[in-house]
Amino acid sequence: MVQVNSPDLFQLTTETEAEEKCLVIDTSDSVDGLISRAMLLGQFEVVVDLCLKAGRMADALAVAMAGGRELFQKTQQEYFRQATTPSAALLSCIISQKWSNLVEKVELSNWKEALAILLS
User: Fold this and answer.
1) Phi, psi (5° rounding) for residue 100?
2) How does DSSP assign 23-89, residue by residue?
3) What integer is the mean pLDDT of 15-41?
4) What letters, b where the CB count within 10 A reaches 16 and e where it falls short, cover 29-62?
5) Rounded distance, CA 63 to CA 29, Å?
6) Can you give the pTM of this predicted structure?
């Protein structure tokens, strides 16, 4: 079991395993190939669109970070539009700093939590 405070929390492979893997750049007509070709051309918006269409939100967000602030914000908005979890809705309010959305939409029974967020 990995503990939250463990330094190995995000280490999925050892250095030896990482060294053994070769980087393969797919240039086929598959989704990965299209993504690779767009990355090779520096077409970050195209890459983000391909990732979103393929349901690869984490990839889309990672690429959007490399594509600049505007692309990242646009991709982030799309993430929050698609996300359906309560924590994603809360995160959206915090990141966008739309405090009125939090106040208007919070369940009355969660008034203490909402107040804590507003005060922090």
Assistant:
1) -65, -35
2) P----SSSHHHHHHHHHHTT-HHHHHHHHHHTT-HHHHHHHHHHT-HHHHHHHHHHHHHH--SHHHH
3) 86
4) eeebebbbbbbeeeebbbbbbbbbeeebeebbbe
5) 20
6) 0.69
